[in-house]
Amino acid sequence: MLYQWRFQKRKARVQPFIDIINNWWDGQLYRNLYAEAFWLNPRFQYDANIMDKHISTISGFLNVLEKHAHGNLPLQSKITIQMKLFRNVEHDFGRASTINNHIFMPSGI
Questions:
Q1: What's the CA gap between 47 and 39, in Å, rounded?
Q2: Residues 6+ positions from 43 with CB-CB distance below 8 Å
Q3: pLDDT at 5
Q4: Under a CB-based contact definition with an 8 Å cutoff, are residues 99 and 92 in contact?
Q5: Domain that holds residue 21
Q6: Do residues 89 and 17 lie in contact, with contact meaning Cβ atoms separated by under 8 Å?
Q7: What is the pLDDT of residue 43?
């Protein structure tokens, strides 16, 4: 409570630094590995507002997939199918324990 009050009192002085950090972080999302981690995090995946803002992260995810699958088309196909199940909360991704992670899992990013 005390920290919030102190921060609010000095917000105008601190805001330029917060803006720099936020802009830097938003730029990181367009690097493939960060984009993949973002896309796979249930906390972000199932928040429509966040995913709409960062929809281009799917390209980074697919770039990492293609790089590490080494041209193995059956593997790429299996992973793509799993991505769809994950996105649509189907099969094991629809279990109660998994759905709870949408809310309670820390962002990690």
A1: 11
A2: 101, 102, 103, 105, 106, 107
A3: 65
A4: no
A5: 14-104
A6: no
A7: 78
pTM for the structure as a whole:
0.54
Which amino acid is present at 28?
A: Q
Confidence at 29, pLDDT banded by 50, 70, 90: low
What whole-number distance in Å separates Cα of residue 15 and Cα of residue 17? 5
109 assigned to some structural domain: no
Confidence grade of residue 42 (pLDDT, cut at 50, 70, 90): confident
DSSP character at residue 95: S
Contact 43, 107 (CB under 8 A): yes
Query: For the chain, what is the domain count?
Result: 1
Query: Which candidate, 84, 108, 101, places its Cα nearest to that of 34?
Result: 108
DSSP 8-state secondary structure symbol assigned to residue 72: -
At 91, list the tokens: 């099969």
Q: Is residue 5 part of a domain?
A: no
Query: Is 37 within 8 Å of 69 (Cβ atoms)?
Result: no
The b/e string for 27-49 (b: 16+ C-beta within 10 A; e otherwise) is eebeebebbbbbbebbbbbbeee
